[in-house]
Amino acid sequence: MHRRILGALAAAAVGAAALTAGAPTASAAVPTAAPAPSAQVKAVDFTGIVALSNCSGSLVRTPTAADSDPALVLTNGHCYEGGMPSAGQVITNRASSRTFSLLNSSGSGTLGTLRANRVLYATMTDTDVTLYRLSQSYATIQQTYRTPALQLSLTHPTAGADVRVVSGYWRRIYSCNIDGFAYRVREGEWTWKDSIRYTPECNVIGGTSGSPLVDASTGKVVGANNTINEDGGRCTLNNPCEVDQSGTITVHPNIGYAQQTYTLAACIAPGSVIDFNRPGCLVPRAGS
Question: Which residues pair with 227 in a beta bridge?
């Protein structure tokens, strides 16, 4: 996980911030599966991207959200301002006044400041997400800043998909593919299910936590970037490992992961509220 911004990472990322949007990092690794030949890659930029004090995030909506609904911001559970939720902890419907810097489409500047009034959901159990409800509606944000929200996918992503990790904190876009899915990813006391594994090009760093993972063929958000194995360590903080169904542990040094978001997107009901009884809502419930 990369909630803390370390000096060494900051130095490395200053140069990275100058990269053009969508430019891949320097790696010639070949993904295990290729995108479908018919897929049309969309131009992914910083539209709908926000920067937090120590993480990245995105302005998001479901396909059925009304323009009058309060807008939502998605980031990681470990970016929650109250501290990282412990294993098994689920936070719901908690007051918040957190602010977010909304970037312009090129990432060269900010359009304005968005403010939350509530944490709808936050956890680091099974997944790693925080979902904030804002004091402004989608329509108000569109009218004020002329920028739309990113759409959350309601389906499981596919292996080999061409994806982008869009960091508002560093104003950098990483390009890679989905290498596959890990049955379990373990890091310290936390365990995440069915995690997205990147090909090596997405060598994410501190501050990219919470960045949306955007499918380049659809423009939809399919995950929230959350960690990378930094030192080759085994299941320790900043060194996640994979655990298969038989309990076998595998370590992939310098490989990053994201947590799928369709399981949370299905829980979002009209009016920007969480309804755990909605079909497809698969995230842990408070008190469960």
Answer: 257
